[in-house]
Amino acid sequence: MIMLDERWKDEYVKTPEHFRRLVMNTVDMQLRSDIVDERCVKQRRHIEWKGYLRVAVSCCLILLVLAAGTGITAKYDSIYKWIASLGANQKHAEEILITDFITETTTEELKKEESTELTTDEMPAIFKLYNLDPEIAAKAVRKPPSLELESLYVDGTYLVFTANLSKDAKGATPGGAKDHVLVNGQDCLMVYFKEEPLGSNHYECKIDLTYADNLQGDEVEVSLFLMPVEDFTFKARIGDNFEETRNLPAQTIDLGEDGKVEVNELTISPSQLTVQLHLELKGADAYKLADAYTCYMKLVDSKERSDAEMKWMERGDVTTKEDGTVIRDITISATKFDADSDTLTIIPCSYETDEEGKRISGTEEWLTEKAVTIPLK
């Protein structure tokens, strides 16, 4: 608490004294409470002053809402905003989130100050990936890391972390990051790296783990090439927090006289649902039904919730076999679909069009009798 009080005076000097006392008292009560839950006890055993500060800042944000117009400003952890966007999976994602790092390391400074270049063995892996000049690399690795890890989320589909500007940082703040990231030594693509909010020295990064096959074990190692030239590498113990994306086996859904739907690929995690379908439709309305499945649709979970939001869809061309069977491939990606759902039901929607082929508003019809239900467990 003493360290928190000192940090508060240094970093939140504009905050009124009565707010400071209220937050400090709240944090103190939290730490003194007789919590017997095993998970909470474990977290309290390992909690550091950064955790105290984060609780304090969260309290300030709540007070900001209640006391709008006071002009108080505070930092906040943007990863909670991202988690809130996951809808039905928010609680699940919060359980995966790591904010208390038992082991965390960053790239060590090079000991040989007299050296002007790095050997192949000394060169950080992310610099090797981009074929960085050894002399430039030697200068870069001697600088202290500009960022300090704050929180980490890994679910096998995405890795998201937040970090703050280190108090030991020297030189310019990170000016972005290159688009390739190493996760456990595997080349992955970055979705974004941004300062959030702008001017806060608080950064958020999202990494696509599609090409990361080796995420087993207790730790994850991430390496970024921060611009202009910095190797930001950290290791974090994930342990029981890690949840691998579920990859379901291929299956075929029989639609009876309407044909069939082949589910060639289905992956699901709290952050995203992706489904690849091959439609083989029959009957007089086959072509119309193929359009209904690829224009508007509902994704319904086993609790009959349709909160999922479509992120993108790839539609293949419509082809027809000699027997009249209509063929079409589609790939769907959505968020907010319950990762614990027992089933996924896809309900297509038909509508009328005008002379220009545009949808006529108000003519939409949900074809519940043509819905496809896919078992997820």
Overview of this protein structure:
- By secondary structure, this protein is α+β, with helices and mostly antiparallel strands.
- 24% of the residues lie in helices and 32% in strands.
- It has helices at 2-11, 17-32, 38-46, 49-66, 79-84, 90-96, 125-129, 134-141, 286-295; strands spanning 104-106, 147-154, 158-165, 180-183, 186-195, 202-208, 219-226, 230-237, 246-248, 251-254, 259-269, 272-281, 296-300, 309-315, 319-320, 326-335, 343-350, 365-366, 372-375.
- A hairpin with a 5-residue loop joins strand 15 and strand 16.
- Helix 1 crosses helix 4 and helix 2 crosses helix 4.
- The radius of gyration is 26 Å and the shape is elongated.
- Residues 1-5, 7-23, 25-76 and 103-114 have low confidence and may be disordered.
